[in-house]
Amino acid sequence: MARSVMLSKLCSSYGAFLAASSSLGSRISFSSSYKVLFLYTWYLWPTELCGESSQFFFVAFPFLFLVKDMQSMLQQESSGDWDSLGFGLVETDFMYFMRSSSDGTFSKGELLPFGPIQLNPSSAVLNYGQGLFEGLKAYRKEDGSILLFRPEENALRMIAGAERICMPAPTVEQFLDAVKQTVLANKRWIPPAGKGSLYIRPLLVGSGPVLSLVPASEYIFLIYVAPVGNYFKEGLAPINLIVEEGYHRATPGGTGGIKTIGNYASVLKAQKIAKEKGYSDVLYLDSVHKKYLEEVSSCNVFVVKGNAISTPATKGTILPGITRKSIIDVATSKGYQVEERLVSVEELLEADEVFCTGTAVVVSPVGSITYLGKRMEYGNNGVGVVSQELYSSLTSLQMGLVPDNMGWTMQLQ
Ligand SMILES: *Cc1c(COP(=O)(O)O)cnc(C)c1O
């Protein structure tokens, strides 16, 4: 009797552990799986029934799983899968999670297993779009160390955005600490040098319930990460843009200058129409004069003419990109004359090169722009020399291939 109870207890416990570990798959962490096994083995040890010699099997059994766990982790680290990485979401192990009351007192953040979060159906973010996102990358260097690129700029941009839509934001220090913790917890997902990077996505949303239009009483700051490949596998690939005449991304006095979630659903339709016609994306004009360049759906734009590189000034309708800001400094240091000003759509006719900038693409050369049915081409079906030069300079700095004279990279471990 005692024996069958003990055996069924053993079987069901190990069964439950097996089910849990296989459903969690690679997510169950090395140390927690070890702890669970150790506890079960110790708690259920049937020495009085099985005798001393049986101990070997009960120790060997959990260790088999430990070895299996280790093997799959090692394979993950070195698998050829890194070569097929695109820009889709690959789920990773942990996300960072922190709550705040409306006065900006953030709780101590914690790392949780990546997965769904609970939200009140009447939360401000679901009902009124009170939310911001950020985007940055971590690169692995050849020597295994990890580099972040200007993460404090993302923290400052989140603070500025939060002010605009009445949310409290984490301090620069809290933001940086959270980014570091999340990257280190998901370290095994950072592609090897040259194979891509870990895309980091911080979110700040109004989670408290509202019914009338008011700021939420509670906020969630969270960060998740996903490994991404180099945006263009075969080096730089020129994109084809169409100038949008009907739809606008932003208006003066609006929220175009902050990374609020509401700015993005509104560009999906213009982008969809453009893609159906074979274009890569949409280039927006200012909504007042319908004459000056603003930006692409999620990238800033630059126009090259001789030694001059011009980009629309950020006056509230254009997102102040960190790549934009960095390219301005890199180009200036290389002797280009960089101008932040109103750039008329007419200037596209005269331009030598056009390129876009953003964290995902870094620098994306533009092969053609179509405006009022007229197609203008750049780079002679290839990549313009200035676009190529700036792309190479900035990516080698971000990846730690050249000394960082700008002081832009932050090394983790
Ligand atoms: C994020 C974003 C950019 C690029 O900003 P980076 O900091 O360079 O990544 C440009 N335009 C829009 C609309 C964006 O959302």
Automatic annotation (TrEMBL):
<protein>
    <recommendedName>
        <fullName>Branched-chain-amino-acid aminotransferase</fullName>
        <ecNumber>2.6.1.42</ecNumber>
    </recommendedName>
</protein>
<dbReference type="Pfam" id="PF01063">
    <property type="entry name" value="Aminotran_4"/>
</dbReference>
<keyword id="KW-0032">Aminotransferase</keyword>
<dbReference type="GO" id="GO:0008652">
    <property type="term" value="P:amino acid biosynthetic process"/>
</dbReference>
<dbReference type="InterPro" id="IPR033939">
    <property type="entry name" value="BCAT_family"/>
</dbReference>
<feature type="modified residue" description="N6-(pyridoxal phosphate)lysine">
    <location>
        <position position="259"/>
    </location>
</feature>
<dbReference type="GO" id="GO:0009507">
    <property type="term" value="C:chloroplast"/>
</dbReference>
<keyword id="KW-0663">Pyridoxal phosphate</keyword>
<dbReference type="GO" id="GO:0009082">
    <property type="term" value="P:branched-chain amino acid biosynthetic process"/>
</dbReference>
<dbReference type="InterPro" id="IPR001544">
    <property type="entry name" value="Aminotrans_IV"/>
</dbReference>
<dbReference type="GO" id="GO:0004084">
    <property type="term" value="F:branched-chain-amino-acid transaminase activity"/>
</dbReference>
<comment type="similarity">
    <text>Belongs to the class-IV pyridoxal-phosphate-dependent aminotransferase family.</text>
</comment>
<dbReference type="InterPro" id="IPR043132">
    <property type="entry name" value="BCAT-like_C"/>
</dbReference>
<dbReference type="InterPro" id="IPR043131">
    <property type="entry name" value="BCAT-like_N"/>
</dbReference>
<keyword id="KW-0028">Amino-acid biosynthesis</keyword>
<keyword id="KW-0808">Transferase</keyword>
<dbReference type="InterPro" id="IPR018300">
    <property type="entry name" value="Aminotrans_IV_CS"/>
</dbReference>
<keyword id="KW-0100">Branched-chain amino acid biosynthesis</keyword>
<dbReference type="InterPro" id="IPR036038">
    <property type="entry name" value="Aminotransferase-like"/>
</dbReference>
<dbReference type="InterPro" id="IPR005786">
    <property type="entry name" value="B_amino_transII"/>
</dbReference>
